[in-house]
Design goal:
Shape: globular
Radius of gyration: 21 Å
Protein name: NIPSNAP domain-containing protein
Number of helices: 8
Structural class: alpha+beta
Strand content: 25-35%
Family: Belongs to the NipSnap family.
Number of strands: 8
Pfam families: NIPSNAP
InterPro entries: Dimeric_a/b-barrel, NIPSNAP, NipSnap_domain
Length: 274
């Protein structure tokens, strides 16, 4: 079958009435799931609860900063951010902590990611912003940091409830962040599949954190994995593909994705997770 023929078949299927997209996968004559059913997004039933309430604990908020640095300013930028971390850490009345700080080794170069965790929901986010905006040293560092950057982006995230509990790592590791932009309305479907899929990715303790966006770019998902090195990453991922059931989880999540990319991360000198 040619690629053009395949596209025509998928297009014709999507033009069928909505009843064709049911929670029951299309069955082939022998009773097994057809290959075409795995190209489709299964129907999501209406719910009176928000997706975030069903998928996560909303009292813990994660803040992901993505900074694109001018190539000639990486050193001064790192010094600047380290001082900012020290100021935030000194505020004992705030329940905010830096979880990870990384520079991109493969992917979007001259980029740093910083992951913070708030305990106390968005009330603590608001309180923290007020306290820091009233600190002249912190404000000065923030203004200075702007001269080192080409652009920056901020997202507030929630952790998937089915993901293993986040634990800081020791020794020397590399991290991979795989970021997905999903089709609107498919977050529950994603969660249903990954609640099963994550069981295939815990043999080597590689699952570090899994998030979905609340504020910022919406319908974004970030999975962060931890490996000893690139060879370990290769072997771990190949091992997952040899596990019965992993391929099925992937087949059902691929149609939910509009865009995806991965970056290899190296912890900074001041990153709590190593």
């Amino acid at each position: 079958m040619t690629f053009v023929s395949l596209r025509l078949m998928v297009k014709a299927f999507h033009q069928q009435p909505v009843r064709a997209l049911s929670t029951t996968a299309t069955l082939a004559r022998d009773g097994s799931e057809s290959w075409l059913s795995k190209l489709l997004v299964r129907k999501i039933e209406p719910t009176k609860e928000s997706h975030s309430r069903m998928l996560s604990d909303k009292e813990i908020i994660y803040e992901l900063h993505t900074h694109n640095i001018r190539p000639d300013s990486v050193g001064p930028y790192m010094d600047n951010y380290k001082k900012s971390v020290e100021i935030v850490s000194s505020k004992k009345n705030l329940t905010i902590e830096l979880i990870g700080s990384w520079s991109v080794e493969v992917g979007d170069l001259d980029q740093c990611l910083h992951l913070w965790r708030y305990t106390g929901g968005f009330e603590m986010v608001d309180q923290t912003k007020k306290v820091l905006h009233d600190d002249p040293d912190y404000v000065k560092l923030t203004q200075e940091r702007g001269t080192f950057l080409r652009s920056r982006h901020l997202q507030y995230l929630l952790a998937f409830s089915y993901w293993p509990q986040l634990a800081l790592r020791q020794d020397k590791n590399i991290y991979e962040i795989r970021s997905y932009r999903l089709k609107p309305g498919t977050m529950i479907e994603w969660g249903n599949n990954w609640a099963r899929a994550i069981n295939y990715r815990q043999n080597n303790d590689e699952a570090f954190a899994g998030f979905f966006s609340q504020i910022g770019r919406l319908y974004n998902v970030h999975h962060i994995w931890c490996y000893k090195d690139l060879l370990s990453r290769k072997e771990t991922r190949e091992s997952a593909w040899r596990s019965p059931g992993w391929d099925e989880c992937v087949a059902y999540t691929v149609p939910l994705i509009r865009e995806m990319h991965c970056r290899i991360l190296i912890p900074t000198e001041f990153s709590p997770t190593k």
